[in-house]
Amino acid sequence: MTSNLPSIMNGGLDFCEWSRNDKELAVLLKKPIEVVLGKYGVGLVNIALAESGFEKGTMDTYEVMTRLNTGYMMSDTGGKIEMSFAAIGLLARLHLSRGQSRAAQRAINSFREKVIKENADWLIPNLDAMEIWMQLLTGKNEQVAVWMEKAPNEGVSFCCLERYRYIQKVRCLIAMKAYGEAGSLVERLNLYFTEYERNYMWMENQVLKAIIQYRIGNTEWKDTLEQVLIKMEKYHFVRIAAQEGAAIQPLLEELEETTVSEEYLNLIKQEVDKMAHYYPNYLGKEKKLKEPLTDMEMQIVKLLCEEQTSQQICEICGFTYSTLKFHNRNIYRKLGVKNRKEAEDVAKRLEIYEG
What are the Cα distances from residue 67, in Å, to 33, 47, 53, 71? Predict the structure, then answer.
C-alpha cells in the first residue's frame, strides 16, 4: 500500500482522485479495506484521511495530529511497520509546517531506532531520503554530498520504485546549483509520472521544474507553474507548493497572470510565506536585487568577500571609515542582509563575487 514511502496517498497507488471524496469513501470502505488487507490495513484509513486533510488544508492541526497518532498506534500494535512509517513521515511534515523542525527530527530519530530494532532495513533508504530533505529545508546542506553518493543513479538504471529518492535527488541538485542535472532527472521523472498517471508526484515534479527554469532564466517557468497550479486546484492540494517555501516564493511573487481562483492562490501564498519564514535558506533561495549596486558598492562587496579589513577597504577606496559605514548600510539594505557575513554569503550566491 505504501511502497515503503512516508505516505499513503502517494504510495503503492496514486490516491489523488480518492482525496476529493475522502471522508465519504472512508466511511463506505473502512471495513472492507481492513478485511481485505489484513494487517496492512490496520490504521490505514486514519492515516489516509489525515494525509488528505493535511495536503488540502481542510483539516485543522489537532485533527490531523489525532488521526496520525491513532493510526500509528493501531499499526504499531496490530499492523505493519510500513504503515507506521507513513504516519511518522506525515507527523514530521506536520511539525515542519508549523516551524517545529526539532520535533520533526525527534520523531524521525525515534522511528529510526524502531526500524533498526525490528530489522526493517527496507525502510532505511526512504527514511534517509526524507531526512536529507529535512536537512535541506533547515539549510543544513553538509550531508548532501554524502547522501548523493548513495542516491540511485538513473543513468545506470531508472527504477520507478526509487521515485521518492529521485525527487529528493532533484532537490539536492538544485541546492548544489547543478541545474542541468536536476532538469534532466525532472524530465525523466515527468515521462514516468505522466505515462502511469502518478498525478501527485507529477505535480511535485513540475513545481521543482518551474523552480529550475526560473533559476536558469528560462521564461517558460511561468507556463510550467501555471499548469501545475491548475491541476493542484482541481484537488485543492496546498502542501505540494507550500513545502517548497523559500524556493518557490519568488516565482509566486512574479506570477502576474493566472487562471486559478484568487482565493486558492492567496491560500497557497499564505502557506508558502509561512514555510519561507521558518526556513529562509531552503535550496539556497535565490534573491534578486530590487535595486542594483553602484560601481563603488560592487567594489566594496568584492573587498568584503576577499576578507579585507575595514581599514584596508578605506585605504584601497580612498575614503574615511564614516563613508564606508554609509556604503555598507546601503549594501546591506539592497542585499536584504543584516551583517557582513550575510552580505558575503548572498554576494557569492548571486555571483556578484566569484572568488
Answer: 17, 6, 10, 6
